[in-house]
Amino acid sequence: MKTYTDLPSDAGSNIIGQVTAQANRLQQRLASVKHTVAIMSGKGGVGKSSLTANLAAALTLKGSAVGVVDADINGPTLAKMMGVRNATLEYTPTGVKPAITALGTKLISMDLLLAEDDAPVLWNAHSQKDAFTWRATMEVGALREFIADTEWGNLDYLLLDLPPGTDRLPNVAELIPNLGGIVVVTIPSEVSQLIVKKSVTMARDILKVPIIGVVENMAFYVCQHCGEEEPLFSADETPNKAFQQTLLGSIPFDPQLSRANDNGTLYLGEYPDAPASKVLMQVAKKIQDFFDEKMQRSP
Predict the structure, then answer these.
(1) Phi and psi (nearest 5°) for 23?
(2) pLDDT of residue 139 exceeding 70
(3) Spatial separation of the C-alpha atoms in residues 255 and 270, rounded to whole Å
(4) Helix (H) or strand (E) holding 255
(5) Is the pLDDT of residue 130 over 80?
């Protein structure tokens, strides 16, 4: 397949110049970001977006400047979870001002651009049946614009909440060649582990992107009557053994966390002593430690 640089003529569209200019803007934006972290799974339904929203809050509570990119273009949920769905994006000559949560976390999401709750993301094409041909390319272009055209300012962390699919990480790694690290999310289910292992292999062995560690979500629930921990799933292998990666934490299932996400309220603020809150703060600390150690090793 030919690349842009192989084309003898672009019919006056200057496509090469457009792509180059946008890539340069993206690098200029990322120059003010210390660490970029992709939150990925490869498997849907594991609570990856919920983890992203609450990790962003945890890192912010720890004093870090945090931005979040909702990279799920077709199924964006973070604006609702982070309580900014009613935010109006402001467009300036230097870029788009992101939505800002009550804590001060910055967010850009396709959900902030859709007019109605039930409005799907539609791409310009002769017909929507034809749009699938260019869908992946257009989604990558939208993600590039999200990062490049948003006024992030100086950030300690930029988190990217990736949609399901093992093909998503290569797209992000192409946009951000020096991606700082990956947090892998799974649940204690053999089906989940089967799919998530593919994403780990893609990141570790093919793309050579550092894996910060694995988070096991919905690991168990705490009985409200007796206080005993009961499993929700029945995987035989623990995450660190299944994926041969550091286990950052096992987060228990908590209906209050789900309600906080639905209401767009701060779970960590409302229930700071809940078991899930404590694990989320521990995971945030381990992410900070990972990058502190990485910087100490750098010459």
Answers:
(1) -65, -40
(2) yes
(3) 13
(4) helix 255-263
(5) no
Contact present, 257 and 219 (Cβ < 8 Å): no
Tokens of 286: 């381990």
Q: Enumerate the β-bridge partners of residue 40.
A: 184
pLDDT (0 to 100) of residue 175: 87
What confidence tens digit (pLDDT) does each residue in 252-281 have? 999 999 999 999 999 999 999 999 999 999
Both tokens of 156, joined, read: 């300690």
Residue 218 amino acid letter: M
Look at the alpha carbons of 206, 78, 175, 167 in this order and tell me if their dihedral is positive or negative. Answer: positive
Residue 237 to residues 41, 55, 70, 189, Cα–Cα distance (Å): 17, 25, 31, 9
Quickly state the pLDDT bin for 194 (edges 50, 70, 90): confident
CB-based contact 95:149 (threshold 8 Å):
yes
CA–CA separation, 93 vs 239, rounded Å? 47
Cα(281)–Cα(272) distance, integer angstroms? 9
Q: Nearest CA to 183 among 152, 216, 155? A: 216
* Contact predicate 72/171, CB 8 Å: no
Q: What is the mean pLDDT of residues 106-110?
A: 95
Are 87 and 79 in contact by the 8 Å Cβ rule? The answer is: yes
* CA 238/CA 223 separation, integer angstroms: 22
DSSP reduced 3-state for 38: strand
Q: How many CA atoms lie within 13 A of 11 on its CB side?
A: 0
Amino acid at 220: F
pLDDT confidence bin for 36, thresholds 50/70/90: very high
Q: Is the dihedral of CA 4, 9, 15, 17 positive or negative?
A: positive
CA distance 215 to 197: 13
